[in-house]
Amino acid sequence: MSSAAARAQEVPAQAPIGARGNAFELGLSGGYAQSFSPAATGGPNGRVLSTGEGGALEADLGWRASSNVAIGVWGHGAQLGMTAAQAPPAIPRNLYEAAAGLGGTWHFLPSSAHLDPWLSLGTGWRGQWFGYGDGATYAAHGLELVRARVGLDIRVSRAVAIGPIIGGTLDDYLTQQLPGGRWVAVSGRPLAGSFFAGIRGTLDVPLGSR
């Protein structure tokens, strides 16, 4: 009896699914977003750095190739209110954003049963749609040169984790649609950026037998 109890005590606890690799990870994030965008204004300088603040949702689907490394795709959508150093109608009142791309994630403590900090880097496409008070619209499309996210997975079960996420992007817009519908190349190629902070939940789906 004592021998059986000793053997039972020696059996290690099972690690989370993601820690052993070969699993799909589906993530969903929501939180606060802020965007810094060089919007066309029609004023003397033609452009001004506008700041949009509001809410955003992000989704990602990745393959946990190993205990430390995951690779996959992601998508982002946001609805923001605009503020700037010029009065309306020169500055748009609303900003809608969408982005999608590829990325990789490094898990620092994949064998931990509870806390696993991670870092994700990616790149992809980014689009913006500005809404003016008079009904005119302005759009811009370009590249999300660098997308960085830092988070902490707090595992609540073998398949589910939740935790904080924070990050930002560096963006380069290539083409823009001016009010009236005409598309032109972005002159001067001013860089833009964004910030995101919120909560992310993940669901692990194992591949093959465990």
Quick summary:
This protein is mainly β. It has one helix at 2-10; strands spanning 23-40, 47-64, 69-83, 94-107, 115-131, 137-155, 160-177, 183-185, 191-206.
Question: Would you give an account of this structure?
Answer:
- The chain has a single domain (14-206), classed as Beta Barrel (Porin).
- By secondary structure, the protein is mainly beta.
- The chain is built from one helix and nine strands; from the N terminus they run αβββββββββ.
Features:
210 residues; Porin; eight-stranded antiparallel beta barrel; 4% helix; 66% strand
Number of strands: 9
**How many individual domains?**
1
Q: Order the strands across the largest sheet as they lie in space.
A: 1-2-3-4-5-6-7-9
Radius of gyration: 22 Å
Question: Any idea of the CATH class?
Answer: Mainly Beta
CATH topology: Porin
Helical residue percent? under 10%
Large-scale geometry? elongated
What structural class is derived from the secondary structure elements? mainly beta
Strand content: over 45%
Order of H and E elements: HEEEEEEEEE
Main beta-sheet annotation = 8 strands, antiparallel, barrel
Unreliable spans are 41-45
Span between termini: 29 Å
